[in-house]
Amino acid sequence: MGRVEGKVAFITGAARGQGRSHALRLAQEGADIIAIDIAESLPGMDRYYEGATEEDLAETVRQVEALDRRIVARKADVRDYAGMKAALDEGVAELGHVDIVSANAGVFAFGDKTQDVTDEEWQLVTDINQTGVWHTAKAVIPHLIEQDTGGSIIITSSTAGLKGTPNVAAYTASKHAVVGIMRTLALELAPHRVRVNTVHPTGVATDMILNEATFRLFMPDVEHPTKEEAAPIFETTNALPVPWVEPIDISNAVLFLASDEARYITGNELKVDAGYTIK
Amino acid sequence: MGRLDGKVAFITGVARGQGRSHALRLAQEGADIIGIDICEAVPTNDIPPATEEDMAETVRQVEALDRRIIATKADVRDYAAVKAAVDAGVAELGRLDIVAANAGIAGTPNKAEELPDLDWETMVDINLTGVWRSCKAAIPHLRAAGGGAIIITSSTAGLNAYPNLAHYVSAKHGVVGLMRTLALELAPDMIRVNSVHPTTVDTDMIQNDTIYELFAPDLEPEQRTREAIAERFMTLNALPIPWVEAVDISNAVLFLASDEARYITGVALPVDAGQTTK
Q1: Partners of residue B278 in chain A, C-beta under 8 Å
Q2: Which of A224, A238, B156, B258 could cross-link with A274 by S-S, CB 3.0 to 4.6 Å?
Q3: pLDDT in tens, A97-122
Q4: Which chain A residues contact residue B3 at CB under 8 A?
Q5: Structure pTM?
Q6: How far, in Å, CA of A182 to CA of A134, rounded?
Q7: B33-74 pLDDT, tens per residue?
């Protein structure tokens, strides 16, 4: 018997990285999946890392189906409320209900001093990381309330949602903001037995940080820093002697918060950060 | 395949309540148990104490799960006794991976300025210093195992204040500082240290006349029923429940103890139905 058997999970940013990992981990434990991803590169973001593709999203579908679970996957942008709501509603129509929400979609832009961040970049990061989470909640809450069977919303924040990070202003602001959304929703939705929590990863080994641009944030003087050169420097940010964690580590935290084992846990910021924030 | 197969857990306050629940939940997932409990009354603590029969019942229930348990009558105020119990348990079971520093008392509510010295000292000696002693006895064994997880039971009173509980609130805040310090000190050894922060848990520690009076001083003693008190407790939480069950704390301890939380350290995890968010 899986730990989320019979439940349906709505996951944003599900094409790759943590989102795909969440889909697979929850599916392993018995959940069906409603997945969305923008599945395209964003203007201005390509100087950091490439966007997810439709092939990535198709691969998530293939892997979930290989676990013998159902998945409804749609190309949708969390900035577009109507588009994402339509995708969610189709998924609920097909799979019958929605119980778990993983608001995972996000972008990481960095490197400029706060006064040098462009309006476009600030807006893009805020629209996706902050407003996108609100859109996700707004689309799903009516389903959760109408179903009247409780539910669990897990918002992906970051260690940058708890501490300042120099030269990462827009991202850090957006990740703090979702803690405010989480706390507010936890109170608003408690009477409906819907729980709301955040997870706060340290660096996770995905395309979002395993790229030359991110390595250069830590090694500004090296022209083409490598993963091997970056690892010991990443490690100095954590208390545990690890440079980063794996997507599965965040998925296991999401699974715990999603499951009935956490039935009375709400309003929490759960750090999966190898001790980053206490250091 | 259990989530803790092959691991050994040391649990303090194991005779009943949350401690027994932790022992059973961890044993269900494959762990063997080293347990201690004072099994006798503590001055300044009103509620009827755990007994040796209670601890024997924990042993019976763990063994019924086909797991091994070494249970010893020992007081967390007595370092030598705690260390002897842990050492003997490790000698028998072969290793130590998990510590649930759970033993604690609620004490007798009183205004801070009126608390007798004995109440303050007993509280701190058990709920704070007892946790330090438990960790101190266990750490060499965790290091020998190549890593591990310590889970300290704090409280919502480790994050928030509650009037008339200065001694309890102080001790429960104190263990958060201990947790954070140990998390840093032990990180190089891959030993993780976290705290759990329950709201009220449905055990003898809250279901008694002393706690009922604290939460319903306006009611006559005969009006202080479980149902009447439930309404009072419910107002503290965001979720519409009066208290959580011991197994809810055990499930959080299990998660933090397991390899699923292999990179979680230095975390204060409320299991509080939203009490500290409210």
Answers
A1: 187, 267
A2: A238
A3: 999 999 999 999 999 999 999 999 99
A4: none
A5: 0.95
A6: 9
A7: 999 999 999 999 988 999 999 999 999 999 999 999 999 999
